[in-house]
Amino acid sequence: MFDLDQFKADCCAAVTTPAASQAIREAVARAVEVPRAVLKALGDPVRAEVHTLHRSSDLTILNVIWGPRMTVMPHDHEMWAVIGIYTGREDNILWRRLPGEANGRKRRQAPRR
Question: Residue 110 carries which DSSP code?
Fold first, then answer.
């Protein structure tokens, strides 16, 4: 059973470890093992929105709800992130900068196999 308070506590403890990204990845993987439990705790998605579940100086936990066919322009988070999907799916297009191109023009990369 997914417990939001326990999940936040697990992530807060994990972020203080030397391998924080891996420890949080494991906490997120455990959390989304039973998607129905996450849906029960967070509620069924109704519309596209972002809920901040936790914010501190060293960790932010968001519940991001994407709308159908919603897209975002290429961007760089400039930090590591762990994404756990508990319903629906996320499609990613990976881009790379073209060396010597004005304005940092980017080119779509071939999908990973």
Answer: P
DSSP 77: -
On whether residue 59 sits in a domain, the answer given is yes
15: left (phi over 0), alpha (psi -120 to 50) or beta: alpha
Structurally, the chain folds into a number of domains equal to 1
Q: What range does the domain containing 87 cover?
A: 4-108
Q: Kindly report, residue by residue over 82-100, the tens digit of the pLDDT.
A: 999 999 988 888 877 777 7
Residue 113 lies in a domain: no
Q: Cα(113)–Cα(42) distance, rounded to whole angstroms?
A: 33
Would you say the pTM of this structure is higher than 0.85? no
Residue 56, classed as helix, strand or coil, is coil
